């Protein structure tokens, strides 16, 4: 095992076992190096790897600490790797998204937030009135993100956001002969989701969400678009 891998494995074990819990300060470098049997350079390289994953954080003038180990925050870092996945892998991820968003949409309907339906309706009014592909992508993400947030599980929200972010690079809402059909089908799917949420019907909400995302999978399999640069924000 390479020295850096040995250091990384040792740090991970200390954190996973609870020896260094959330918010805990790391022991001094010499003590850690002695404990793990590695050099300072290997330890620092391992620490940088964990910092990139959101597992540890350095505080200027104070030292190195284990982060809060918030699942949503750690999962959000997956986007660095997920954004490298090609279309076939994205299609597999969409199956995961379909399951997660069906659950989140059912939870949103069950929680009965009286403001959610109005919020979603406003988003759909704007979405249905535009044919601009970039605006469609942004509003679509806003719609699904709002539902996942309302579902009440930040980890599910973070994971679906990561998957949706990569899926957004494979754009189906582009000018062409299929655009009108895709847009109309997508709009109907969104309205079915909203109707189920407004009725506070978790079962129907889950079914509508699953069917809508399955339709997106079908379009992606049929069109097989090339990945595009990240959409501009704002």
Automatic annotation (TrEMBL):
UniProt keywords (A-Z) are: DNA-binding, Transcription, Transcription regulation
What InterPro entries has UniProt attached to this entry? GntR_C, TF_FadR/GntR_C, Tscrpt_reg_HTH_GntR, WH-like_DNA-bd_sf, WH_DNA-bd_sf
Which GO terms label this protein's molecular function in UniProt?
Answer: DNA binding; DNA-binding transcription factor activity
Q: Which Gene3D superfamilies match?
A: GntR ligand-binding domain-like (1.20.120.530), Winged helix-like DNA-binding domain superfamily/Winged helix DNA-binding domain (1.10.10.10)
A Pfam family matched in the record:
FCD
All residue ranges annotated as the HTH gntR-type domain in the record: 1-69
State the name under which the record lists this protein.
Answer: FadR family transcriptional regulator
């Amino acid at each position: 095992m390479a020295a850096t891998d040995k250091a990384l494995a040792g740090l991970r074990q200390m954190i996973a076992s609870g020896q260094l819990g959330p918010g805990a300060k790391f022991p001094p470098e010499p003590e850690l190096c002695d404990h793990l049997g590695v050099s300072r350079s290997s330890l620092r390289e391992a620490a940088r790897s964990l910092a990139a994953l959101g597992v540890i954080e350095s505080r200027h003038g104070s030292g190195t600490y284990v982060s809060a180990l918030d699942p949503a925050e750690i999962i959000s870092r997956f986007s660095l790797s997920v954004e490298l996945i090609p279309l076939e892998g994205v299609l597999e991820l969409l199956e995961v998204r379909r399951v997660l968003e069906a659950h989140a949409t059912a939870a949103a309907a069950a929680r009965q937030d009286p403001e959610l339906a109005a919020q979603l309706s406003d988003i759909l009014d704007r979405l249905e009135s535009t044919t601009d592909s970039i605006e469609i992508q942004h509003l679509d993400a806003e719609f699904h993100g709002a539902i996942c947030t309302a579902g009440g599980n930040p980890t599910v929200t973070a994971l679906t956001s990561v998957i949706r972010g990569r899926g957004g690079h494979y754009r189906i809402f582009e000018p062409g002969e299929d655009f009108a059909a895709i847009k109309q089908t997508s709009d109907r799917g969104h309205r079915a989701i909203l109707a189920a949420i407004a009725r506070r019907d978790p079962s129907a909400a889950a079914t509508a969400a699953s069917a809508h995302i399955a339709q997106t999978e079908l379009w992606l399999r049929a069109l097989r678009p090339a990945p595009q640069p990240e959409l501009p924000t704002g």
